[in-house]
């Protein structure tokens, strides 16, 4: 009975996804989902999914590790500012990303005063 409740809760929360973006990065996939809370406030659910293969031979066991964080509107500016700082630090110490040789290494921060949800994250 409890498994049924958990399954229904998961199914209902999947229906609440208003917008989703999948970012494939090697063995990982990052899912950026916009959802709505019970109070009709939008938030971002960020899920990292990593493929894990255990065992070798004909019958390897494949599973996925998932880690999730929730980012609420009141924290967007602080989160984006902090994320931009750590990205800039890494780029300053290790140089530009090999994926984009035209990148100047310092993306412009985006203003979030319009009420729109904008997240520009490069991995």
Which structural traits does this protein have?
PUR family DNA/RNA-binding protein, alpha+beta, 27% helix, 123 residues, 4-stranded antiparallel β-sheet, DNA-binding, 2 helices
Describe the fold and architecture.
- It holds the Pfam family DUF3276.
- Keywords: DNA-binding.
- Belongs to the PUR DNA-binding protein family.
- 27% of the residues lie in helices and 35% in strands.
- By secondary structure, the protein is of the alpha+beta class.
- The model is unreliable at 4-13 and 109-115 (pLDDT under 50).
- It has helices at residues 2-15, 76-94, and strands at 17-25, 28-36, 42-54, 61-72.
- The N and C termini lie far apart (41 Å).
- It is built from two helices and four strands.
Quick structural gist:
The chain is of the alpha+beta class and 123 residues long. The protein has 2 helices and 4 strands, in the order H-E-E-E-E-H. It has helices at residues 2-15, 76-94; strands at residues 17-25, 28-36, 42-54, 61-72.
- Shape designation: flat
Average pLDDT taken over every residue: 78
Secondary structure: number of strands:
4
Which sequence of SSEs, written as H and E, runs from N to C? HEEEEH
Low-confidence stretches: 4-13, 109-115
Radius of gyration, rounded? 18 Å
Structural class: alpha+beta
How many strands, what sense, and barrel or not for the largest sheet? 4 strands, antiparallel
Strand content: 25-35%
Strand order of the largest sheet: 1-2-3-4
Number of helices: 2
Q: Alpha-carbon distance between the termini?
A: 41 Å
- Share of helical residues: 25-40%
